[in-house]
Specification:
Elements (H helix, E strand, L loop, with lengths): L3 E12 L2 E12 L3 E5 L6 H8 L9 E9 L2 E2 L5 H7 E4 L11 H5 L1 H5 L6 H14 L3 H4 L12 H13 L5 E5 L7 H14 L4 E5 L3 H7 L2 E6 L2 E7 H6 L4 H7 L9
Parallel strand pairs: 3-8, 3-9, 6-7, 7-8
Antiparallel strand pairs: 1-2, 1-4, 4-5, 9-10
Bound molecules: adenosine-5'-diphosphate and magnesium ion (MG).
Length: about 260
């Protein structure tokens, strides 16, 4: 039995009066890739924003229920410390435009005022870029701006920036939806490699991507978690008709 690093229980999320997550109970296995799928607007982004407590930064936003990281209630933790343990990468690559590649990687340390010696910083930058499979491409350009990189490289820089904090969980919100097929394939291979050292929870619209990378898949619909299980099971013999219709593209689902 593999261990579950994150336990979401009876979880609800609201924007004002609008309830966008309803009674979600889901446990995420450690050192695996879990994909979250479902039609646009079903609450995928909201769910992962609740997991690193970004949801509460939106005015009027509210939650009910619990999320535990290694059996510790994340809503009882300091959110700044939590966000170091649970890193996030967004849909569009967003390196800090004024910063060099080097400074982008260590931005989490600078922004949090964490003091680290110069030699150690160099080590963190090299290790994080290595892990994000970007080191060889940028090692001679560390002091150039990150925005000179291609889209795929920028996204790997954002992954390196998240990994630099040594997170226990990496949240990826449709990380390849702005990238071309080649950059996408590269990042998919990277995701499979990364799960050896970090638990990955990834929102994706792409069934081929989930099939290639995810050990487990959750299917959501209108704020409900419909089904969760091994990706191979969900893709071949789903329990719910809505899962089947979505995965085979036969449902009347609105896409963005
Ligand atoms: N900042 C916000 N304020 C109000 N409603 C929001 C906000 N962000 C998302 N929503 C609503 O929450 C629901 C879920 O959105 P989201 O989590 O972004 O879905 P998904 O990522 O699955 O497309 C949608 O109905 C959306 O309109
Ligand atoms: Mg989304």
């Amino acid at each position: 039995m593999e261990s579950e690093i994150l336990k979401i229980e009876k979880f609800y999320a609201f924007f004002g009066k609008n309830r966008v997550l309803k009674d979600v109970t889901l446990s995420i296995p450690e050192y695996k890739v879990t994909a979250i799928m479902g039609p646009s607007g079903c609450g995928k982004t909201t769910l992962i924003r609740c997991i690193n407590r970004m949801h509460e930064l939106t005015p009027e936003a509210r939650i009910e229920g619990s999320i535990r990281l290694n059996d510790q209630d994340i809503y009882g933790m300091n959110p700044i410390i939590l966000r170091r343990k649970i890193g996030m990468v967004f849909q569009r690559p967003n390196p800090f435009p004024t910063m060099s590649i080097f400074d982008n990687v260590i931005a989490g340390y600078k922004l949090n005022g964490i003091k680290v010696g110069k030699t150690e910083l160099n080590g963190i930058v090299e290790r994080s870029l290595q892990k994000a499979a970007l080191w060889n491409e940028v090692k001679d350009d560390l002091f150039k701006k990150g925005t000179f990189l291609s889209g795929g490289q920028q996204q790997r820089l954002c992954i390196a920036r998240a990994l630099a904090m040594n997170p226990e969980i990496l949240l990826l919100d449709e990380p390849t939806s702005a990238l071309d097929p080649k950059a996408t394939a590269f990042i998919e291979e990277l995701i499979v490699e990364l799960k050896k050292s970090v638990t990955i929870l990834m929102v994706t619209h792409n069934t081929a991507q989930a099939a290639k990378t995810a050990n487990y898949t959750a299917f959501m619909y209108l704020g409900d978690l419909i089904e969760f299980g091994k990706t191979s099971k969900l893709f071949t013999v789903p329990d719910d008709k809505r899962t089947e219709e979505y995965l085979t593209g036969r449902g009347e689902f609105v896409e963005d």
